[in-house]
Amino acid sequence: MSSPSGQSFLGFSRSQSTGPVQRCVNPATSVELAGDFFQATEADVLKAATLAAAAAPSLSALSGKLKAQFLRDIATRIEAATPTLVARATQETGLPEARCQGEIGRTIGQLRLFADLVDKGDWIDARIETANPERKPLPKPDHRSMLRPLGPVAVFCASNFPFAYSVAGGDTASAFAAGCPVIVMAHHAHCGTAEIMGGLIVDAVRACNLPEGTFSLLIGQGRVVGQQLAKHPALRAIGFTGSRLGGRALMDTAAARPSPIPVYAEMSSVNPVVLLQGALAARGEGLATGMLGSCTLGVGQFCTQPGLLILERSAEAEAFVARLSTLFAEAAEGVMLTSGIHHAYVNGLVARAAQKNVRVLAQAKSSGDANRATPTLFATEAAVFLANDSLQEEIFGPSSLVVWCAHREERDRVVTALHGSLTATIHGTDEDLNKNKELVVQLEAIAGRLVINGFPTGVEVSHAIVHGGPYPSLSDGRSTSVGSNAIYRFTRLVCYQNFPDAQLPAELQNANPLGLSRLVNGNRSDAAL
Ligand code: NAP
User: Which of 195, 212, 266, 394 is catalytic?
Assistant: First the structure.
């Protein structure tokens, strides 16, 4: 594997920055990896944004077929470069090879999902209301509407998904699919992986004869370079995955711009799980094993990690928590993605343990080696939880909090007080579910995906998935950052009034040359007018 150049991609050229310089570190060994990475300059940010603005009109005019070809080209290049990508990413993240392979598969799958979506074309939601010049008292105009791309999008890479939510990840794929140029802000933890992936996308841009500003990749501190980017007037939207602090800072920057722009930030989620009596009685042991697996999967560094377990007190519930405590105590420690994330995890545990009336139920053994996280289980009473908002904060890592409720009314109070989450889970028998129908309604109000008798980790990328929820899980709970519906974040509706047929986009022309399913005068149709 050749050494990275460490310079940002500014369209087809590379930055000539001389610094500041940073290096990536293998979190498993704390050893610095080869390759200096040079922070993009303010002039680099300006160049990337100017190129993106210049590319936006051509990209917005691109047919679905050409966008699909571009997305498939990127996917094919990633497939071919998988060994190189895995070799660098495993070193930069400490993630096992199999996980990196799997995540690359997901990334390729996402690109192809969006390619198929735009190839078919129906997603643009074409609507036609034909004119009625005879209508009284006023004639009805001809109105035709469809979704159009927003323009240049900034994408901030996620630390915990070096592929699926980084340079060529879901935000980038959905923005390209919508017809938007993308400027990616690399995550400082995996700059080398980002550089390899950036090179593949630039090659695809050239191969598909797309404009130079279709894609740029900036290296450097998000707090410096990312902020400069977020303020640039050419930018039209931001996609982000990371901490609540980082997401919030970008939301505030975007809102304070002379021309504010939307920020789609996926930030923090505690993913409550409600365990009902019948399920605990029927399969408490298996539930404890499954719960430990979900809490500690990927060293707990998943946005869907179950951080809150809500139970009514009973002998079965006590037995389940006792078993789960044993499993937590026996669990293995794991390498976290960065020393910063490890530091935040340790601080989170210390702060939680110091909370009044919160007990540490179990903590796994620690080797004391750098960046290792020890699975930790806490417990508290519903009244304490309800009186202390900090207990709703995400501890990013393999930790969970048991909330004991004295009775159903208390459980209802806990559930209705929950902040927004990506997921909410119920474990219950049919009888439990029939007796607790209000739970689904309560959980719908706070989460984007409801899981019954399963575990929230493991997010399927599909047309029906929802990976979003009310704040703080997402900055805008109306959207999803996973699955084909993610494309709508980077679009807006445009209506064409009384246009001559030849001047309309093909999607809205009378002959329906693309054969789309359209809403014509209120009825779905794929026929010509
Ligand atoms: P982060 O600190 O939010 O950083 C993510 C990206 O945003 C980095 O590129 C970072 O750049 C940038 N950034 C941070 N603050 C910014 C600001 N004020 N303005 C502009 N850009 C900013 O997240 P992280 O490094 O991935 O992990 C830290 C913590 O985030 C974790 O401990 C965890 O709590 C949380 N997290 C949550 C999820 C989730 O899905 N729920 C996923 C990942 C992380 P620089 O750091 O280079 O400045």
Answer: 266
